[in-house]
Amino acid sequence: MSEPTPPYPRTGWIEVIVGSMYSGKTEELIRRLRRAQIARQKVEIFKPRMDDRYARDHIVSHSDQRIPSRAVKSARDVLRHAHEAQVIGIDEGQFLGPGLVAVCQALAGRGKRVIVAGLDQDYLGRPFEPMPELLAIAEYITKTLAICVVCGAPANRTYRKVKRGGRVVVGGADLYEARCRRCFELGPRAARVVAAEAAAGRAAVRPRSRSSR
Ligand SMILES: [Zn+2]
């Protein structure tokens, strides 16, 4: 790793923003990066090249906020283009592979503020590497919650609506929806079960309402 040490002596750190799809991760990432840009800090923003659902050269949230970004093939490429930056934003970190952890450590070690957003779980509810490792080493963690489309409870799972194999199938609302723990486990039966419960006059078991971010 040969990039020059930045000329400012302050310490760096890592911030991680994780949650399911439709939980506002990218919105939160964009919000933080905008604040840094307003303060005239040097900001570099990256996303994996494979995720070009909305735009190749922008990070775009589901609410259509956008900010220019550089598409990279690997975590290594982030290192290559980040040496001038004070603040580094990375979206969809789960697609950049295990090398992302060392890259974030190296950047924070050079005094940079590193902000990574990504899915903490895959479509089967399993921890989605390398986000778990990043959560362990980060100074700041934000977990964003969506709302379960079936029952309205806070949702932290991403449910894949179609039977299509593979951990990585890039898609939007046609393929994925946010679900709570229970509706995720109920799978394709969730809508029927929740509707039947409502019809029977029994309130479905819901967690106490929580203010969402
Ligand atoms: Zn639910």
From TrEMBL:
Q: Where does ATP bind?
A: G19, S20, M21, Y22, S23, G24, K25, T26, D91, E92, G93, Q94
Family recorded in the similarity comment: Belongs to the thymidine kinase family.
User: Which parts of the sequence bind Zn(2+)?
Assistant: C148, C151, C180, C183
Q: Which reaction does it catalyse?
A: thymidine + ATP = dTMP + ADP + H(+)
Q: What class of enzyme is it?
A: transferase
NCBIfam families, alphabetized:
PRK04296.1-1
Source species: Eiseniibacteriota bacterium
Q: Which positions in this protein are listed as binding substrate?
A: V168, V169, V170, G171, Y176
Give GO terms for biological process: DNA biosynthetic process; thymidine metabolic process
Q: What is its EC number?
A: 2.7.1.21
What are the record keywords, sorted?
Answer: ATP-binding, Cytoplasm, DNA synthesis, Kinase, Metal-binding, Nucleotide-binding, Transferase, Zinc
As one GO molecular function, the record gives: thymidine kinase activity
What the entry lists under InterPro entries is as follows: P-loop_NTPase (IPR027417), Thymidine_kinase (IPR001267), Thymidine_kinase_CS (IPR020633)
Q: Has the keyword ATP-binding been applied to this entry?
A: yes
How does this polypeptide assemble, per the annotation? Answer: Homotetramer.
Q: Which Pfam families match?
A: TK
Give the domain of life.
Bacteria
Q: Where is the active site?
A: E92 (proton acceptor)
Q: Name one GO cellular component term.
A: cytosol
Q: Where in the cell is it found?
A: Cytoplasm
Q: What protein name is recorded for this chain?
A: Thymidine kinase
Q: Which Gene3D superfamilies match?
A: 3.30.60.20, P-loop containing nucleotide triphosphate hydrolases
